Amino acid sequence: MSINLLHRHVLDDHISGFETDPNPNHLSIIRRPVIFSVLAHEGQETAVAEALWNAEDVAPRFCGPSEWFAVSRTVGAEMVAGMLSGIAGASFADQSDGRVLMEISGPSVRTILAKCVAIDLHPEVFEEGHSAAMLCCHAEANVARTGADTFEIIVPRSLAGSVFEEMMEMGREHALTRGFVD
């Protein structure tokens, strides 16, 4: 007898039935991202960082010295693992099931995020392509600026519900909408 398992996102109960057309300020939940934790071996930090930045279909997110997330929305985990296994001096682990990826965008994104993080998000300080590990809504997070008014937030699965609820509360006055992205 076979068992069919359905994928259920941890934020399904927070969003399902309440999705609306996106407003200019919008919080997107990426339904099935690929997220790998990558660690550089001692002395290999520069080579690993360079290989990650040159990789196709993978966005590196700086976490700390010798540590990155490799994030992809376009290719599967097997393809990313294959690419990562080709990087000499790197160890990696699939974190896709243990992390949730959110993307917040819009003209008020910095005002909303300023209520959730304790860093300077000015475009001249936190430039496109930059990322950092920080607290977001009192939870461990990795925040990356991916566009002029777009940020990605990676949080542990166990804290995703509380981060989501707090982000929605902080964005209420800016008509922040939410929805899944496949």
Q: What is the succession of H and E elements?
A: HEEHEEHEEHEEEHE
Structural class, from secondary structure content? alpha+beta
Provide mean pLDDT, rounded: 92
Number of helices: 5
What general form does the structure show?
A: globular
3D architecture notes:
- With 182 residues, this protein is an alpha+beta fold.
- It is built from five helices and ten strands; from the N terminus they run αββαββαββαβββαβ.
- The strands form two sheets. Strands 7-8-9-6-1-10 form a six-stranded mixed sheet. Strands 3-4-2-5 form a four-stranded antiparallel sheet, with helices on one face.
- Strand 7 (131-136) and strand 8 form a beta hairpin.
- The longest helix has 11 residues, at 160-170.
Pick out its properties.
182 residues; alpha+beta; six-stranded mixed sheet; four-stranded antiparallel sheet; 5 helices
How do the helices and strands line up, and which of them pair or pack?
Layout: H1 12-15, E1 26-30, E2 34-40, H2 45-54, E3 59-64, E4 67-72, H3 77-85, E5 90-94, E6 99-105, H4 109-114, E7 131-136, E8 139-147, E9 150-156, H5 160-170, E10 177-181
Parallel strand pairs: 1-10
Antiparallel strand pairs: 1-6, 2-4, 2-5, 3-4, 6-9, 7-8, 8-9
